[in-house]
């Protein structure tokens, strides 16, 4: 029942980490690999948006709102017996045979969720950036095209600031 870092997984018994848990290399590369996985999903979502017809404003709003349902799943993946650090060298650590994951399957559900978050992010953002200028008067198209990245960055900043207290609450 372990995942990539649990028993029987890449970092666990019989895996890259040997019998003592995740290897130092696995622990060091786990977080960077999450960034890569998210970005792969993001690129796939943007590519898919380029190949499909644009969604209407209501459908895009519903799809973007539906992404909020992924937040509790992401929190469940972060929760574990070792204070939200999983078994990737982040401190704490469960006893022998104790799962450090709130969901069955170890890291696999978390990695799949991260890929889904990346793909939906790329798809929704690309659709919004392509559709918004088409929904305003010709004279305002350039202004809309310039201000959308500004508001995207404001949203990212607010999300990052809200993540800090949420992370503390999970610990």
Please give the radius of gyration in angstroms: 19 Å
Shape: elongated
Beta-strand residue fraction: under 5%
- The number of distinct helices, counting runs of at least 4 residues, comes to 5
Low-confidence stretches: 1-18, 81-87, 89-99
Instruction: Bin the helical content.
Output: 55-70%
Number of strands: 0
The largest sheet, given as strand count, sense and whether it forms a barrel, is: none
Distance between the termini: 24 Å
Order of helical and strand elements: HHHHH
Average pLDDT, all residues:
77
Structural class: mainly alpha
Description:
The protein is mainly alpha-helical and 171 residues long. It is 59% helix and 0% strand. The protein has helices at residues 24-51, 57-66, 70-78, 108-131, 141-170. Helix 1 packs parallel to helix 4 (108-131), helix 2 (57-66) packs antiparallel against helix 4 (108-131) and helix 3 (70-78) runs antiparallel to helix 4. The longest helix has 30 residues, at 141-170. The two termini are 24 Å apart.
Keywords summarizing the entry:
single chain, 171 residues, mainly alpha, 0% strand, disordered N terminus
